[in-house]
Write a structure and sequence with these properties.
Layout (H helix, E strand, L loop, with lengths): L1 E4 L1 H4 L10 H8 L6 E2 L7 H13 L4 E7 L2 H6 L3 H18 E7 L14 H22 L3 E3 L4 H9 L14 H15 L6
Parallel strand pairs: 1-2, 1-3, 3-4, 4-5
Helix pairs in contact: 3-5, 5-6
């Protein structure tokens, strides 16, 4: 299993590494070979370099868990550039992994770090970027988990501050558990190998 992308792939905000998605996966599948190349601050364009480095190393994976997009929302990457970057990323990733699951960003307008009215700007940017991510995933036969979709927004909005780390931006351990459970369900992964 390859984990790549940004700080959510690293597990920033989890109380301990074992409560990150990589840690939860390792606990459930102790015999799995998990390689984590995620780096905090990565945007979609940066994830392309992560994929290419793995290809150059001759690696091959059954599953790639892609954690990227939130930094593009914050940086307001132009949607035309984002579309091109997503297509390149997923095309390259298809050469590296048999299956890809993209764990998209939550509605960043809910992050306590962003006060109103800036929160509304972040919410709008998240929706626009997530449409680009979802369309790209559909074109490249990848699973896209849209954590900015209404059902997930409702979940996070119930106890907004309880779902974010102390920095008011990153997910906390409870959010990583939620994301992991959602991904496992969408991918149809068995409870135990």
């Amino acid at each position: 299993v390859l984990i790549l992308g940004d700080s959510t792939g690293v597990g920033v905000g989890a109380t301990v590494p074992e409560e990150s998605i990589a840690g939860l996966l390792a606990a459930d599948y102790p015999d799995a070979d998990i390689v984590n190349v995620a780096v905090s601050g990565t945007r979609v364009a940066g994830a392309i370099a992560q994929v290419r480095a793995c290809l150059e190393a001759g690696l091959r994976f059954d599953l790639a868990l892609l954690h990227v997009g939130g930094n593009d929302v914050v940086a307001d990457t132009p949607l035309s550039q984002l579309t091109d970057d997503c297509d390149t990323l997923l095309r390259e990733l298809a050469r590296l992994a048999d299956r890809t699951a993209w764990l998209g960003p939550p509605d960043l307008g809910l992050a306590p770090l962003f006060p109103r009215p800036y929160a509304w700007v972040m919410a709008s940017r998240t929706r626009s970027a997530s449409r680009v991510f979802s369309a790209a995933a559909a074109r490249h036969n990848a699973v896209f988990i849209d954590f900015s979709a209404p059902a997930h927004v409702a979940h996070f909005r119930k106890r907004r501050r309880a779902h974010f780390a102390i920095d008011g931006f990153h997910p906390n351990s409870a959010s990583y558990q939620y994301g992991y459970s959602t991904a496992r369900q969408m991918l149809g992964l068995p409870s135990q190998p």
